[in-house]
């Protein structure tokens, strides 16, 4: 059976999936994201993707996530304050609405925005969309007094009230669907088996992933922030590290990476299992962070969701796409660069194999840091915003 271990539902309806680079790049404090943190791996580099989903039968278009609003300094104060404590770099070139319109997609053709969750690097600025675009949120979001009403009516909310103003807000209810996929409760979004929302709790209230049918038998798993680093679920017994890292996965660094590059360069510094153990090739390098500064509101549940994700990663029928995995932008066509290109052909193009081990580039190599920071400092209007951190922390005026 192709979908071994996963109860993937059958349908011949598909969605066209286009990968949108939200142009957000971040360098963040690893302690808030992964556990353990190794020397020379104190920072993580994160890109940030969203997805333009189009039902192949009806033509209906929805966005799954929006990235970060370009004028992030206008986010609610609570949001800015939290962000400032984990960010060492942040840069956003464009709002996702500019990317869409610049490539011929009118905003009034987007029937819904689906938020994987309510964090600022996914919510974008829905107020830029017309009121005809509905907003779809995960379980509990509309009922949380910590979130709604939004800022400024509710000074402590991390969400802006204007995101909701004048538009339909639809909260997904997984209690009544009677559907489960791969261990996650599911909801058939279009009702035709082409696109499912998945209940993936732990990172924050109402966190959802999506499963998009890219062909009759293949899927893209849109991961949101089920975790932030691929090393949280790879390698695994079903996706073990090969003896040599495949060509193309590692950055060009001849001083450190020989060609071919043996995997023990990495397994010898496995942070969890003893280096002599063969388990180093089959055990994820990290857990999700449960540190006091963790971005996860419920780390234990978040870890369970990540553990459940492993079966999807093991399936040859599923491409796992974390919102913050830089490898996606290396090996998949983006809507930004090629608006007519979708990612539906990922399997025939060998993308699953190509993106699999690129996360190793982030790890320390030879007693020094891995990949250089993607961005240093908080950027505003095309340059480093020197007083930015003090402003975001509420210690200075914008
Ligand atoms: Zn995120």
Automatic annotation (TrEMBL):
Keyword Metal-binding: yes
Example GO molecular function: hydrolase activity
SUPFAM superfamilies: Metallo-hydrolase/oxidoreductase
Pfam families: Lactamase_B
Keywords: Hydrolase, Metal-binding, Zinc
Gene3D superfamilies per UniProt: Ribonuclease Z/Hydroxyacylglutathione hydrolase-like
Domain Metallo-beta-lactamase residues, every copy: 50-209
Protein's UniProt keywords contain NADP: no
Record-linked PANTHER family: METALLO-BETA-LACTAMASE DOMAIN-CONTAINING PROTEIN, QUORUM-QUENCHING LACTONASE YTNP-RELATED-RELATED
Family: Belongs to the metallo-beta-lactamase superfamily.
Full protein name: Metallo-beta-lactamase domain-containing protein
Biological classification of the source: Eukaryota, Fungi, Dikarya, Ascomycota, Pezizomycotina
């Amino acid at each position: 059976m192709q979908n071994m271990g996963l109860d993937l539902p059958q349908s011949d309806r598909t969605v066209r999936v286009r990968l949108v680079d939200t142009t957000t790049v971040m360098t963040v404090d690893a302690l808030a994201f992964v556990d353990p943190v190794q020397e020379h791996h104190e920072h993580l580099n994160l890109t940030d993707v969203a997805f333009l989903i189009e039902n192949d039968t009806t033509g209906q278009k929805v966005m799954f996530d929006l990235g970060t609003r370009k004028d992030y300094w206008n986010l609610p104060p609570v949001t800015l304050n939290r962000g400032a404590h984990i960010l060492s770099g942040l840069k956003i070139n464009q709002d996702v609405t500019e990317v869409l319109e610049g490539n011929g997609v009118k905003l009034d053709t987007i029937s819904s925005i689906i938020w994987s969750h309510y964090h600022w690097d996914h919510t974008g600025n829905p107020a830029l969309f017309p009121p005809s675009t509905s907003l779809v949120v995960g379980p509990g979001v509309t009922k949380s007094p910590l979130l709604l009403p939004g800022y400024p009516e509710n000074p402590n909310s991390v969400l802006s009230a204007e995101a909701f103003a004048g538009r339909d807000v639809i909260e997904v209810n997984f209690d009544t669907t009677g559907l489960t996929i791969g261990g996650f409760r599911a909801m058939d979004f279009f009702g035709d088996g082409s696109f499912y929302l998945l209940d993936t709790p732990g990172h924050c209230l109402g966190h959802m992933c999506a499963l998009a049918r890219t062909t009759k038998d293949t899927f893209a798993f849109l991961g949101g922030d089920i975790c932030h680093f691929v090393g949280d679920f790879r390698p695994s017994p079903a996706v073990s590290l090969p003896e040599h890292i495949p060509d193309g996965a590692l950055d060009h660094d001849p001083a450190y990476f020989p060609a071919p590059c043996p995997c023990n360069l990495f397994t010898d510094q496995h942070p969890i299992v003893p280096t002599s153990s063969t388990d180093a090739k089959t055990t994820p390098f990290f857990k999700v962070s449960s540190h006091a500064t963790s971005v996860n509101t419920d780390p234990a549940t978040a870890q369970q969701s990540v553990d459940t994700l492993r079966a999807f990663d093991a399936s040859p029928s599923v491409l796992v796409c974390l919102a913050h995995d830089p490898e996606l932008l290396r090996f998949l066509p983006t809507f930004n660069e090629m608006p007519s290109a979708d990612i539906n052909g990922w399997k025939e193009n060998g993308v699953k194999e190509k993106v699999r081990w690129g996360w190793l580039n982030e790890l320390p190599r030879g007693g020094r840091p891995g990949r250089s920071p993607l961005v240093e400092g908080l950027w505003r209007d095309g340059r480093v915003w020197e007083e930015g951190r003090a402003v975001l922390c509420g210690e200075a005026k914008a």
